[in-house]
Design a protein that fits this description.
The structure is a single chain. This protein is of the alpha/beta class. It folds into two domains: about 220 residues, TIM Barrel; about 100 residues, no CATH class. It contains 14 helices and nine strands. The chain has a seven-stranded parallel sheet. Strands 2-3 form a two-stranded antiparallel ribbon. Strand 7, helix 12 and strand 8 form a beta-alpha-beta unit. The protein binds coproporphyrinogen I.
């Protein structure tokens, strides 16, 4: 594909030098936006996802308000499972009519069931100019399985962890079934116009290193190897400071990290270096993150200062995608989001002494 203007997001994924990193925000569409709440006061969450025009509109709302470099398609990690025999509602998180007991209760993935999301992707790709990336996504096998067997959100997902510990539980088969279905789903999203993919493993931080290596990683390999050569993949797994070196061995292009470690330390762990105090991250893998979404609740000035702190740490090193360490919360002030995006755009103007001429070419 030839492009008149470079796509900042894909350039960062490829490790190209840039004057500033691309910025987008997990949950950039959602309840903190008055225009989102206006639509949701008239349309249910699942109905909004099932209507391509509405899903596209909700995807584009934050792009109009802020100068973001990527849009993420409006859907939920549970959306493709609704076509696989899983009956659920949202209040606001997913709630199954009855928890899943075994992979055999799932019907095969069928792209026809996610046709509205694929059509919304086509609409969004057509509406945005070529400098903006469109991100498709799915839930990772463990995180999806955790919701399926628990039946709803949970802070500890004990049912999934009990099954994980029991070789007779069929959990591995469930993970593999989900990996195969999500690979099909992601390929369909790339074919519909997504420029890149993010895999959300929101709850895998609950898992021990041993279980992650033994049970979870094979299913992730199974999923991401199907995408090789089709489009860049980000793996986002918050709460995994104890797993980052293992995460770094996955064949993905970008690793999304939370705020618990300084970004350079997390980056070095992902890249298999133990000299984590060294101020220059290895460039073997792009990194996405890592502002604590709670900081935005402290207001625009505090937000801008923390954004600049992260950018100063990374110091213009190629391969950084600016994002939060987890999603925006519904009570986030709009001013803080604006300040975040502006602080990324302003860097490094504020830091006069930092010379980026080498990386800006
Ligand atoms: O309007 C409403 O009340 C619905 C709130 C909401 C929204 C806006 C839910 C229910 N999902 C979404 C959209 C969504 N979910 C997006 C696209 C929008 C965007 O990011 O801009 C994405 C990528 C997701 C992914 C998602 N859903 C994850 C992974 C990311 C994460 O936050 O860790 C998870 C864990 C879910 C489950 C889910 N769906 C909804 C909620 C509130 C939750 C989490 C809470 C729970 O477990 O109960």
């Amino acid at each position: 594909m030839t492009r008149a203007d470079p796509m900042r997001y894909l350039d960062a994924v490829a490790g190209r030098a840039l004057d500033r990193p691309p910025v987008w925000l997990m949950r950039q569409a959602g309840r903190y936006l008055p225009e989102y709440r206006a639509i949701r006061s008239e349309v249910g969450f699942q109905d909004a996802i099932s209507d391509p025009a509405t899903a596209a509109e909700l995807t584009l709302q934050p792009m109009r308000r802020f100068d973001l470099d990527a849009a993420i398609i409006f859907a939920d990690i549970m959306t493709p499972l609704e076509g696989m025999g899983v009956s659920l509602t949202f209040d606001p998180g997913p709630r199954l009519d009855s928890p899943l007991r075994s992979a055999s209760e799932l019907t095969p993935f069928d792209a026809a069931h996610v046709a509205p999301t694929l059509e919304a992707l086509r609409l969004v790709r057509g509406a945005l100019d070529s400098t903006k990336a469109v991100i498709g996504f799915c839930g990772a096998p463990f995180t999806l399985a955790a919701y399926l067997v628990q039946g709803s959100g949970s802070k500890d997902f004990l049912t999934a962890r009990a099954m994980l510990a029991d070789p007779q539980s069929g959990f591995t088969v469930l993970l593999d079934t989900l990996a195969d279905a999500m690979a099909d789903y992601l390929i369909a999203q790339l074919d519909a116009g997504a420029d890149a993919i993010q895999v959300f493993d929101s709850w895998v931080g609950l898992v021990s290193r041993d279980d992650y290596r033994r049970v979870v990683m094979p299913s992730l390999h199974r999923l991401v190897t199907r995408l090789e050569g089709r489009g860049p993949v980000t793996y986002f797994a918050p709460g995994t400071s104890h797993l980052l070196d293992l995460v770094g061995s996955l064949p993905v292009d970008v690793v999304g990290v939370d705020w618990r470690l300084p970004i350079v330390e997390a980056w070095n762990l992902v890249c298999g270096r133990d000299d984590s105090h060294v101020n220059h991250p290895s460039s073997r893998r792009a990194i996405q993150g890592n502002l604590d979404p709670a900081i935005l609740l402290a207001g625009p000035e505090v937000t801008a200062a923390h954004v600049t702190e992260i950018l100063d740490l990374v110091d213009g090193h190629p391969g950084h995608i600016f994002n939060l360490g987890h999603g925006l919360t519904p009570d986030t002030p709009l001013d803080s989001v604006a300040a975040l995006v502006e602080a990324v755009a302003a860097w490094p103007a504020h830091a006069g002494e930092i010379d980026i001429t080498e990386t800006a070419t």
